[in-house]
Records
---
Amino acid sequence: MSPKPLILNLFEMNCVGHITHGLWRLPGNNRHRYTDLSYWTELAQIAESGGFTAIFLADVVGAYDTYGGSAETALREGLQIPNNDPMLVVPAMAAVTERLGFGITFSTSYEPPFAFARRMSTLDHLTGGRVGWNIVTSYLPNAARNFGLADEIEHDHRYEIADEYLEVVYKLWEGSWEDDAVVRDTDAGIYADPTKVHRIDHVGENFSVAGPHLSEPSPQRTPALILATASPAGALRAGRHAELVFTHGPLLERTVPAVRAAAEEAGRDPAAPKFVVQAAVITARTQEEVDAKLAEYREHRSTEGMLVHQSIPIRALEHPRERTIAEALEVEGLPADTPVGRRGAASTVGDLLDAVDEAWQDRFFVAGTPEEVADAIEHWLDVEGIDGINLRQYHSFDTVRDFAELVSPILRERGRLPELEGTLRRRLSGSDRLPAEHPAAQFRGAFTDQGV
């Protein structure tokens, strides 16, 4: 029996500070170069040399402004602000690579589906089918205010919008153009057969889209579908739609069976969704070098940045450790009925700080020699039951380079990093197109009686 292959993604964001709070200050870190195209092309080439499946690009469309009641600390920390559009760096990375895929985070909450569908089809064409869509709904209150709303969209309504959003883009990607619509008949002067291109005439609660889709069929039609979830509602949608599920390690035992059950209920193969977790790897040729790196990273980490990222409203570092959360909220004049208050009003500020710092090093963390790292990853695959990892980038480019140069050769020798070619979906599931049982497939041939 062949060893289970590893889905290996590099977790990135088009910004200075993604999820390694304060570490942009590390000596030799290239994070400040995120605005330079050469940063992204160099990163992509290192990742491809290391057999990475994809670069997974996170995104937010608002600032973290819960902590202290403003975005001041987020800006000072460089915590996901400034940040640039993740889609625009993909063509440059694709131009200098041949196999590397790209997972692009895009929210269904604020921008219309018609324009997004065209942008993703364009990227699918330009990359030869190497793109995936990380489907998210936006949760930051500041994001809502950036798009003309007084506050964030209510949770259940966000998911209702997402459901209809998916229906619209599926209709455009899968149903608007028939497979043989593009004929390129130079003698007859016909590029596309208009009888095989169709309006979708979608009219719903949130969107009205006539069509047709503006892009001709791309290699994957629908990009590879990724969904990040840790909630029951998210697991339900992941089971219906996702090919790759990004979840948190502590919730793995709850998420996997929930997603598989939802997939089966939706008529899909319950084994079809694959699961990746955020993982952290610190490695070097010797344990002494590993220990030195770990110490340096911990020295530069920012606890305040962690508090900002977790949208903790109180300035916890300014309170005595023994003060309760309820007391800290009262001192700062904040309502007791907040997520942090409901979670543990009787617990102390010290407990909160310890928990925030503990999150920096969790279940899928390994700091060791390359062989120890490879052993840990094989344990995650074979015992923990995951299919892959999103590798946390502590240092650009040391993290990805260390993995590519030291760990990837060992994983290749052990059969965990096969050299797969083709579209991102083919690398994930062995096929360029979504299977017939996927909900998107119902729209194939659904509009043949509608003209353009």
---
Amino acid sequence: MNEKYMSTNRLEAFYDAIIAIIVTILVLELPQPATTSIQSILALKTSYFAYLISFLVCTNLWQYHHLIYNHVEHINAKIIWQNIFLLLIVSLIPYLTTFVANNPFNLLAEVLYGLDFIIVNIILFWMAKSLLEVNSNQEYLSYALDVKNALVIPFILFITGLAIAFLGYPFSISICCLISVIRSIVYSIKY
């Protein structure tokens, strides 16, 4: 193997571990109901909604990463750093989930939440280009990456949510994030 290329095993294990930690932190950040009543549970509906979106985003990212790396033979230092930067941005999800759950109709909270997902998509697009350069002989990889369905459409949805938020409906960002992740999950099941 060429010295500048590496196998993906360690990167995949690291990615899996970080996503598992992020998902664990997400559930630990869920507030407990004040009492053991339905009203107390329903009072936390925004926290549960934000948790659901964030959980689905994290698990969808894990699944997408797994799908891609089944077709990747080689990586280089650039791809490793793209993954590290991706994990840096994804690791903000528990913090931003709590922030948006506590302020669901606040423009700043919603914009930061949506911006995190936009940055994730930009990094995934950048990483997809790098993976295709390093693994140019893998025709199936370009099909698995499917940049239009996996990255461009979610990006457009996030931008749409941001635009609607600036028109006075901040919660639209969370709704667009949910639509995007559900669409990605349905697409991956068909794949």
---
Amino acid sequence: MLAPRLVTPPATRPVSLEEAKVQCRIDVSEAIENAIIEGYIDAATQQLEKILDLALVTQTWEQDFATLCRQLRLPKAPVSGTPTVKYYDAQNVEQTFAPANYRILTDLEGTYLSIPPEVDVPETFARPDAVTVQFTAGAPADEIPASLKTAILLHVAFLYQFRESSLDASVSPTGAYESLVWPFKRTEV
């Protein structure tokens, strides 16, 4: 499986600039300060998405696979809508796999595309990107759980407070932050 590709980034951030400024106790509106805070929001969001293997705000991804098999694990959750599945047939001609032939399921390891046993799985051409699944992951910003938004705000405030200091390894936003994100971590099976 190749690395996933972000096709369409989120249109908004999971927390607003105003929310972050309140958390950081900033009451000035200087463009440079706003840009710094927005950078911290982006960094905190990226880290949280990486830790939890999820997409917070609605975004579109593509994942390539070498073959079309019964289960194709998707790297981001939650998945909404019906993914598009394209594949290169045995003659290396791109085809579209009908949405009626698969469904999206979620287990303890995450989200996957499932092809039931009664559906014939077409043969694919031998190439690392023989199958491409394009899917939408995430949710509207106003539907993101409050605990995840709070974790981002805590992280932003931490980055802002210690932006110019030399940090040793013992200084981190771990306690409350970990408590907020823990329920969303995937269970090891």
